[in-house]
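Input/output pair, single chain:
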Amino acid sequence: MTGQAIVGRPNADGRGRTALALVVAAESVFFGTLILSVLFLRASQTGWPFSHPSLPQLVVPSVNTLILILSGVAAWGSERAIQAGRDRLLKLGLVLTLVLGLVFIAGQVFEFTRSGMHPSDQAFGGVFFALMGFHALHLLAGMVVLVINLARAGLGDYTPSRHETISLGAWFWYFVVAVWLVLFAALFLV
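Output:
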């Protein structure tokens, strides 16, 4: 490749980061709108049908939150591992992130089955389940990216200087974790 071709080629790293930033911005507006809907419904309803959870009722969502935070730490560790050229730690971090993501989903399913709420429960039930469902879809999308990154790591596709999809996958996972923290606060603590 000539020097001219290299200089004229668009920066792939910049495009990936820009695309992810646009996705995160759009999704943040989407989640923000749904969260504001829940808060508005809660504030405007007299005789609100859903009481705040008691301390024992917060155990499962709190443990689930801790699990998702730990998955974010594992994603961060996998990103740092490939930057240091530690392939085995990259794979371990990706597997750990995936396993913790699956445990989080199992915790969510458990929580939904015992919550007593249904999507048809007035406006709040529909918005609550829309929030939870869309967060789960984002979580699953992040897990698909993690599986693809794990498969590519198994093929030796990543190096300390070439690992953009690992970073982008980790950054999307951080977004999923951050959205959950806001959802947890808005739905269970406020």
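The first helix runs from residue 3 to 8. The chain is about 80% helix and 0% strand.
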